[in-house]
Amino acid sequence: xxxxxxxxxxxxxxxxxxxxxxxxxxxxxxxxxxxxxxxxxxxxxxxxxxxxxx
Length: 54
Known about the structure:
Pathway: Hydrocarbon metabolism; alkane degradation
Largest sheet: 3 strands, antiparallel
Cofactor: Fe(3+)
Mean pLDDT: 96
Shape: globular
Low-confidence stretches: none
Number of strands: 3
CATH architecture: Single Sheet
Protein name: Rubredoxin
Number of helices: 0
Order of helices and strands: EEE
Radius of gyration: 10 Å
CATH class: Mainly Beta
Strand content: 15-25%
GO molecular function, one term: iron ion binding
Strand order of the largest sheet: 2-1-3
GO biological process, one term: alkane catabolic process
Number of domains: 1
């Protein structure tokens, strides 16, 4: 499982926990998140996220 960070606002998407409140169940890999999904904090698109090393 990987973690992705929004380069605009710093919001973090963790594949392990997903984002159930935004319609993305836990365990959803980043590549399976819909292309039209946007950051729940700032509205940035998937292209504005980068994989983050923890």
